[in-house]
Amino acid sequence: xxxxxxxxxxxxxxxxxxxxxxxxxxxxxxxxxxxxxxxxxxxxxxxxxxxxxxxxxxxxxxxxxxxxxxxxxxxxxxxxxxxxxxxxxxxxxxxxxxxxxxxxxxxxxxxxxxxxxxxxxxxxxxxxxxxxxxxxxxxxxxxxxxxxxxxxxxxxxxxxxxxxxxxxxxxxxxxxxxxxx
Length: 181
Description:
The protein is α/β, with parallel strands linked by helices. The chain has six helices and eight strands; from the N terminus they run βαβββαβααββαβα. The protein has one domain: 3-Layer(aba) Sandwich (Rossmann fold), CATH 3.40.50.360. Strands 1, 2, 3, 4, 5 and 6 form a six-stranded mixed beta sheet that branches.
């Protein structure tokens, strides 16, 4: 049985939910899967894994520093394994793929890692869980984005397209199953 690590960094929790969903899909394919919030946990030894998926959310135009540092520190091991990256942003949610792809390009430049598989997922707007200043700042940001992002501060929004997350995880599992050992 192949063993996979899903490492991620999250701010408001949507990236963690996506990582857990990916782990569930992979487990359903018979893989042994660990998840790790790189902000909270010590780095697991990647030598123990047959494949790695890394995920990070975008805030203020860049990926979380914890996921950047994690990838920098593990770049050589990631390059030697079947690996993938998923990026979570409101740009993906709004359909601004050019901006979302730009965040990934910047991430690749910062880390030196070129994952073989990349996915862009919409995140969420947890207005009810943000402080007053953050709520209003996020509302102003989404008002300037294309698409139909919510601005009702009395509710939360989730923009993750779960079928796309499932396809990403299933494609990674198929790639891992086909990889030579």
